[in-house]
Design brief:
single chain, about 550 residues, alpha+beta, 4-stranded antiparallel beta sheet, 21 helices, 8 strands, about 55% helix, elongated
């Protein structure tokens, strides 16, 4: 049995793979256990690694560094790839306000961390680690460690101390944010409201109007669109007692009924443009669209042919060639208004209205073969990782700073991931991955990263926690987790008149805390806080990564 013992004790690549896999498997199994309705999930891998390191489990340092860093790169690149398609659109309209408030929360928390560093005997590495734990943001920890080792390559001890501080702060960050949600719910949530069906995740709005504005009588749809100050799609027109699919040359006459898809924010403008809105709810679930007219069908068609990746919708001339109307484009779960300049991406789901044969022809043209989307586009993954590592290694010289800043393996890959997800199709690069495939890659990378991070921080962890210094870390963690959140939450409600749902969702997104979001979403009637969470999360996680490096480079 010596071979079996040596398999765990001799520092070979097989021992490294075996130990990391055991830590990952054990952590994932224990992470499913719920305590008071809360489970740590993949985060428990971090604490499993700490326990293993505490009991003297070690692997080859170079293997540990490779696994930890590659796991972080894989996680953060695929995260950027996932949020990329909606990243820039999240800054439109109310998204700008929510992202600015999230930025205020980040600045307030970082400023508080700087004050703690300057007024107490807490080291800079420990302060950054406690801040990363309090905001439950492990990529921020990775960025801080990279910045520290970039300046002081031999200061591995401080990098490990930063990880220990993060491990202490993490559970109190989770608990602190949940307490904040409870306080905000008690003080800010509206009382006595009935729960309503939620469609806030869908920004599009469908309504039926009677053409009663004399200004547009006798005008074609194209002419009306030229005079409008908002985007809309007319999917159906009731003419002479029958339903028809309109074209840009269809003339609108007095008294005709039209079905219009627009942004929710543009509903009042649409009423002014066309006239009275009919009292029919076309947004409720379960509507049989095919029953509106026996000759017309409504189908969802997937874009699966690579030839159409990045092609402008108007260039396909689908309406004029096939007599159909595209009413919505669903991308990554978000409904978009179709326009001539909208570039299609693999995986887009188009809602098409028209005669059955015409819709079938368009489906054949676009592909509509879901199984083709299951084939992973690994080329874009590795190309993106290469570009991310290169961009992360570029030295950026900032006036007043003694050393150049580098985005590192945390900042570079997330920037490239976002850019690839947002603009890759414009260069006909297939960046689409199914949600399950992207989640698989992200979870794999994060799990390996957390296992290596915990293993490297395990030595001396419990000695540090159960000490006077550890008690101080707990107090600092709770303060960093709660004080900025409550201040910004009350300021947002008082001065920006933001609803409770948007407020708490934005706070959870800025703190990268899905556990508190689940609590807020389950207890809130009406609007879903998850919409605000998704609006601020991409920019917040990117800025958290960058802020950790700035703190290290400015204060070290």
């Amino acid at each position: 049995m010596n071979w079996f013992t040596e398999l765990f004790t001799q520092q070979t690549f097989m021992q490294a793979v075996l130990v990391l896999s055991l830590i990952c498997a054990t952590g994932l199994a224990l992470g499913n256990i719920k305590i008071f309705g809360i489970s740590l999930g993949v985060t428990f891998v971090f604490f499993t690694g700490i326990i293993a390191g505490h009991f003297g489990v070690h692997i080859d340092p170079q293997m540990l560094t490779l696994a930890q860093n590659f796991g972080l790169i894989l996680y953060i690149y695929t995260l950027g790839l996932q949020v990329g398609p909606g990243f820039f659109s999240s800054f439109k309209k109310d998204g700008i306000k929510l992202n600015l408030i999230a930025l205020l929360l980040l600045i307030l928390g970082s400023t508080m961390a700087v004050v703690i560093f300057l007024t107490t005997d807490t080291s800079l590495s420990d302060t950054v680690g406690l801040l990363a734990g309090a905001v439950t943001n492990t990529p921020m920890l990775g960025a801080g460690q990279q910045a520290l080792l970039q300046m002081y390559p031999d200061n591995v001890e401080q990098a490990n101390s930063m990880a220990m501080a993060c491990a202490v702060g993490y559970p109190f960050g989770l608990i602190g944010m949940i307490l904040c949600v409870m306080i905000l719910k008690k003080t800010l949530a509206p009382k006595g409201r009935k729960k309503e069906e939620n469609h806030s995740a869908d920004n599009t709005f469908i309504a039926e109007y009677q053409v009663s504005n004399p200004v547009i009588f006798g005008m074609t749809i194209q002419q009306v669109r030229q005079h409008a100050d908002c985007q809309f799609v007319i999917s159906r027109v009731w003419k002479d007692g029958r339903v028809m699919i309109p074209t840009s040359e269809t003339v609108l006459e007095e008294g005709e009924h039209i079905m219009v898809i627009s942004s929710r924010n543009d509903v009042e403008s649409i009423k002014t443009l066309f006239g009275a809105q009919e009292n029919v709810d076309w947004n409720k679930k379960g509507i049989d669209w095919n029953a509106i007219d026996s000759q017309l069908v409504s189908r969802k068609v997937l874009v699966t042919k690579p030839a159409h990746n990045g092609v402008k919708l108007g260039d396909l001339k689908l309406r004029n060639s096939y007599g159909i109307n595209i009413t919505r484009v669903n991308r990554a779960g978000i409904d978009l208004l179709p326009s001539r300049n909208l570039r299609l991406q693999l995986g887009d789901k188009l809602v098409i209205v028209g005669e059955g044969r015409s819709v079938d022809n368009v489906a054949t043209l676009l592909g509509n073969e879901e199984k083709q989307l299951n084939t992973p586009n690994l080329l874009s993954i590795f190309v993106g990782i290469i570009l991310g590592v290169i961009v992360g290694s570029i030295p950026l010289f900032i006036p007043g700073m003694s050393m150049p800043i580098k985005l590192g393996i945390a900042g570079g890959p997330i920037i490239i991931g976002i850019l690839m997800g947002a603009f890759g199709p414009r260069f006909h690069m297939a960046t689409y991955t199914t949600q399950s495939a992207n989640l698989m890659l992200r979870q794999l990378g994060l799990t390996i990263f957390l296992a290596g991070l915990g293993l490297s921080a395990g030595d001396g962890f419990f000695a540090a926690v159960f000490s006077t210094e550890g008690l101080k870390w707990v107090i600092i963690s709770i303060s960093l987790a709660m004080i900025p959140v409550l201040l910004v939450g009350f300021i947002t409600a008082r001065f920006f008149k933001t609803s409770y749902a948007d407020n708490v969702g934005m706070l959870c997104g800025s703190m990268a805390n899905p556990f508190a979001l689940e609590f807020a979403g389950g207890s809130q009637d009406g609007e879903d806080p998850a919409v605000a969470y998704a609006t601020v999360y991409p920019a917040s996680i990117f800025l958290r990564v960058i802020s950790a490096q700035i703190l290290i480079l400015l204060l070290a």
